[in-house]
Amino acid sequence: MATPSKPSEDMVFYDIAMRPPIASTCCAVNPWKSRLALNFKNIAYSTTWVPLPDIAQVRSDLGVDACRNFGDGTKFYTLPILVDRNTNTKIGDSFDIAVYLQTEYPNSGSGNLFPPQKLDFVYNLDDALLVPLSERKGDEHDEYSRFNTNVDAAFTAHLSLMAYNLPFEPATAEASRAEFIRRAGVKSWDDFEVKGEKREKIKESFHLMLGDLSKLFLKDTTGPFILGEQASYADLIVGGWLRMMRVTLPEDEWEEARGWHGGIFGRLHDSLEKYAEVK
Predict the structure, then answer these.
(1) Residues 6+ away with beta carbon under 8 Å from 60
(2) Where is the Glutathione S-transferase UstS-like C-terminal domain (predicted)?
(3) Mean pLDDT value across the chain
């Protein structure tokens, strides 16, 4: 039987609801990785927006267990989830969604999400994180999986620049902030605000980290992507974080970061715009 180039029935994609207008404020990193992958593969889907406090119940109702745990062993319930009604498949992890799309619909869209390449970026992170990182081991996509984990670690280490400005959906903002406060073990939401000299030091670290990451994009200067003119899931992984930065950094800092290292990440963000439609 021939492999279908595209699914016959629209998929359902679950993302975290932010404040209106939601197409401009959605900024959850892992859902963005999946949205970029869905659009890259030209997959028809509709988005179901889930308030942050309802995520655990939605995953339970769909029968999709948490795929990560906090350090104390409790489950970390987050999104995205993708439901493919064509195959009766439900996937609850952004990396697994990308692998599924490429495996099930290899001939759809803009090509291969996982072309062979060396992704030699490593970030050593010793500090405890507010959210656990996703890790996979032992399959044909190890190179991309390691890159995903290292990129997530590198950006998460600088999440304090962004967390305070998360645009929570108004009806559930108080509950959402309370959950972040609980996870971080702080006293109030104001504890997430980073200002003055401390912020400048974190920005300096962020600038240095992005400088290391930018070296990958300098290996082939024929285009904005790591492989030059050919986009891959590695570019979408970074692109998901750029989408969060655009929404949650103060506007002047976003413009500043866009221009760092010769404007590499500003060009990447803009070049991924064709895959960034919010449906």
Answers:
(1) none
(2) 187-275
(3) 92
Q: Cβ(17)–Cβ(50) under 8 Å?
A: yes
What pLDDT, on the 0 to 100 scale, is given for residue 1?
A: 39
Residues whose CB is less than 8 angstroms from the CB of residue 8 and which lie 6 or more positions away in sequence, other chains included = 86
In angstroms, how far is CA 254 from the centroid of its own chain?
17
User: How many CA within 13 A on the CB side of residue 147?
Assistant: 22
Burial group, residue 127, by CB count within 10 angstroms (0-12, 13-18, 19+): exposed
Q: Is the pLDDT of residue 197 over 80?
A: yes
* Burial readout 26-61 (b: 16 or more C-beta within 10 A, e: otherwise): bbbbbbbbbbbbbbbbebebebeebbbeebeebbee
Q: Where are the domains of the chain?
A: 11-128+137-275
CA distance 279 to 259: 29
Confidence tier at 4 by pLDDT (50, 70, 90): low
240-264 average pLDDT score: 98
Model pTM above 0.90: yes
Which residue type sits at 273? Answer: E
Using CA atoms, how far apart are residues 62 and 69, in angstroms rounded to an integer?
19
The structure tokens listed for 74 are: 């409790």
**Options 3.30.2420.10, 3.40.30.10, 2.70.98.40, 3.40.190.10; CATH of 11-128+137-275:** 3.40.30.10
Sole residue written with tokens 């285009």: 223
For 182, the enclosing helix (H) or strand (E) is helix 173-184
Neighbours of 148 (CB within 10 A): 27
Rounded to an integer, what distance in angstroms lies between the CA atom of residue 95 and that of residue 39?
Answer: 15
Give per-residue pLDDT as tens, 114-153.
Answer: 999 999 999 986 654 556 666 666 578 999 999 999 999 9
∠ Cα 145 146 152 (to 5°): 90
User: In this structure, which amino acid lies at residue 225?
Assistant: F
Q: What is the mean pLDDT of residues 6-33?
A: 93
